[in-house]
Amino acid sequence: ISQGPVCTNLGLKPGQRLTVKGKIAPNAKSFVMNLGKDATLLGLHFNPRFDAHGDVNTIVCNSKKVEEWGAEHREAVFPFQKGGTAEITFAVNQNDVTVHLPGHQFTFPNRLNLSVFDYFDTQGDFTLQSLSWE
Description:
Blueprint: E1 3-7, E2 17-24, E3 31-36, E4 41-52, E5 55-65, E6 68-69, E7 73-75, E8 85-92, E9 96-101, E10 104-109, E11 119-124, E12 126-133
Antiparallel strand pairs: 1-11, 2-8, 2-12, 3-4, 3-11, 4-5, 5-6, 5-7, 8-9, 9-10
């Protein structure tokens, strides 16, 4: 899996949001965005799958504590297209993260009770073009 840029000092707290823009590969199988404390404590593992691990056009989310993954959460709405662009906003709340997609949003619980999200990375068939936070 190709590794994109890694951010380690974001300092995202409840009430703040991170907006990610980029390009999806024309032959994309899946891509990943991780948000957490560091690479071992991931509050949100966001994984849109075009065709990977038996999933087709499904968004799979999870959390990871060191080597231990939580229960997978699946979203049936899939607003991504191969070769297209993607804009995704992660809004940090007290107890969860709201993921804003084109025409759709959902929340994922802050299972690790992180008070601050310092870490962000992208992997897979996605080229990061811009990151902004407020």
